[in-house]
Design a protein that fits this description.
Layout lengths: L1 H25 L3 H26 L4 H28 L12 H14 L1
Helix pairs in contact: 1-2, 2-3
Length: 114
């Protein structure tokens, strides 16, 4: 029974990883690609690692440490990539209507001059 449960969890994680790859191909600009890839790949990786922990209980602590590492590094790295893209003025898609970072930077520049 545990073998079936572990295999199903790995399969669901694989579906999320596939959707992350598909999202990276389908999204219109870098910022949306970063967001799509990060959210789906983080969940997919965690599910695959949890499924492996169910299938191989002896590896559970090591896999849980990997899950913790993924939870810490994926969001931080995607944030750094998005900020770097914004800093070098990578363009947004026409469908993007709000850029809160640009708004706050503009507000800081104008308030700094007064």
């Amino acid at each position: 029974m545990l073998e079936l449960l572990g295999s199903v969890i790995v399969l669901v994680g694989s579906v999320f990883l596939f959707s992350a790859g598909l999202g990276v191909l389908r999204m219109p600009d870098s910022y949306n690609r970063i967001q799509t890839g990060t959210k789906a790949s983080t969940l997919g990786t965690i599910l695959v690692l949890l499924g492996l922990a169910v299938l191989h209980p002896a590896w559970a602590w090591k896999l849980l440490m990997l899950i913790f590492f993924v939870l810490l590094t994926n969001p931080v790295s995607s944030h750094a990539l998005a900020r770097a893209a914004h800093a070098i003025r990578v363009g947004e898609a026409d469908s993007t209507v709000i850029d809160r970072l640009e708004e706050s930077e503009t507000r800081e520049r104008t308030e700094g001059r007064n």
